[in-house]
Specification:
This protein has helices spanning about 60-65, 75-80; strands at about 15, 25, 35-45, 45-60, 70, 90-95, 110-120, 130-135. The chain has about 140 residues and is mostly beta strands. The protein has a four-stranded antiparallel beta sheet, covered by helices on one side. The protein is globular, with a radius of gyration of 15 Å.
Length: about 140
Amino acid sequence: HYSNALWTNSNPHTGATDSQGRTERKTAAFGQPTSVVILEMTRNSVTHSVSLPISPAQSLLSIFMGGSMSTNGSLSDWRQLSGYGYQPHCNRQGFNIVGQTAYGGVNGQNNARIGIYFNEQIDCSSPDSGRVVGGSSLS
């Protein structure tokens, strides 16, 4: 959830382990500067990822404590990562996206710690697909 303190504190965290043996973790690396963030998701035993270059290098902690930050990850990688329909326009991507109108598959996900929004119109006024991590509601 977007407002969860785990995004903005430096405390390590080990959460639940899911049925496939994956465990939610936040390690000391969260506070180390990096020049690229790689978001990976696995569906049906296939892992897809998108690389998000960061310049200048920053830690995830400083990114999540800061304001909105646009990214320029590959659209084709984002589209594979989404795992379901996408639309050709909007393509608003970044960290700490706040106040994005959202419908359809991203309905209610107006805020995102990491994400991208797609739209069939040539603007971002009514996106209804995308991929959101750390969203306003479910994520």
